[in-house]
Amino acid sequence: MAKGYGRAVAYGAVTIVNAIACGYGAALGVDLWTEATVELTDNPNVVEGKIVNDPSESTRLIEKTVKRILRYFRLEDKFGAYVETRSNIPIARGLKSSSVAANAISLATLSALDRTLDDLTVVKLGVEASIDAGVTVTGAFDDASASYFGNITVTDNLKRRILKTFKPEIKNVLIYVPEEKYYTVDSDVSKMRVFEKEVKAIHRLALEGDYWTAMTLNGILYSSILGFSPEVAISAIENGAVAAGLSGKGPAVAAVVSDRDLARVERAWSELEGRVIRAKINRRKAQILE
Fold first, then answer.
1. Contact 202/218 with Cβ under 8 angstroms?
2. Same domain, 22 and 150
3. How many domains does the chain have?
């Protein structure tokens, strides 16, 4: 018997290796968050949604995610849903807002149905919903898994497999967020795939545990491909960041910084147009709240 209402939270992520070029990726969980509430209705197959913090954004991902979960349990002819999401993750900046939302919505829907699934199945259903909604090119399994499990996940996005996980000791992540949005569906995939061999080599570094070098190299390469200046990341490195690079397809840039150099990097970035978000590496799993 479904309980009819669910609430869940999933956490953010930033890029270590962007999987678009070769199908292999890596991402780092950060403590930004998206919370989803799901109320089941007796209006079968009708899913309505609202993104409370950005109401002008499309709710297509909300609809596709709920329908994926309902279809999994063959309940799409029994229930519809009303969904609300709230988040402190800027949308369309390369900060994984879609992957995080899909995780939170999937868990909240499961809670409303009073059903359970293993963690990886939840992540994979969210990935499929993201593809259905057209918000991702590869399904972004790297982003979705780092959002769901926290820490670092190194993945095979094509086979939806986590190849390795790491728990880095450092804890600070600074994120530079320019004002303009940049949607994944607008990105030039063929241009990125020219660099398949190079990105595979960067992915190997992450797999071997040299993930901070991988993050910086990935960021410089994708900035060049996509036409973003690498200067934001370079200034972070110059001021002591352990790693820095474009997140996703940008325009946001993430830097991993020690306690000692945090203020210095923040000061350098504060002179740029846009804003700087101070975050931590996330160690928690996405979870049902009620």
1. yes
2. yes
3. 2
Query: How far is residue 222's CA from residue 219's CA, in Å, rounded to a whole number?
Result: 5
User: Helices 141-149 & 97-113, crossing angle to 10 degrees?
Assistant: 60
DSSP state of 158: T
Instruction: Give residue-wise pLDDT tens across range 10-51.
Output: 999 999 999 988 999 999 999 999 999 999 999 998 999 998
pLDDT tens digits for range 133-177: 888 777 899 999 999 999 999 999 999 999 999 999 999 999 999
Report yes or no: 95 and 14 within 8 Å, Cβ to Cβ: yes
For residue 185, the model assigns a pLDDT of 46
Contact between residue 254 and residue 277 where contact means Cβ atoms under 8 Å apart? no
Token representation of residue 144: 């979705």
The enclosing domain of 97 has a CATH number of 3.30.230.10
CA 116 from centre of chain: 23
Q: Cis peptide leading into 178, omega within 30 of 0?
A: no
Length of the chain: 290
pTM equals 0.93
Contacts of 149 (CB under 8 A, 6+ apart): 29, 119, 162, 165, 285, 286
What is the radius of gyration, based on Cα positions, of the chain? 18
Confidence of residue 57 (pLDDT cuts 50, 70, 90): confident
By the 8 A CB rule, do 192 and 3 touch? Answer: no
Q: Is 174 helix (H, G, I), strand (E, B) or coil?
A: strand
Domain that holds residue 118: 5-166
- Answer yes or no: is 285 within a domain: no
Whether 96 and 51 share a structural domain? yes
The residue out of 98, 131, 166 marking a domain boundary is 166
- Nearest Cα neighbor of 93 from 146, 142, 57 is 57
Q: Where are the alpha helices (DSSP H) in the chain?
A: 60-72, 97-113, 119-133, 141-149, 189-193, 196-207, 211-226, 231-238, 262-269
Q: Which residues are 153's β-sheet partners?
A: 27, 165
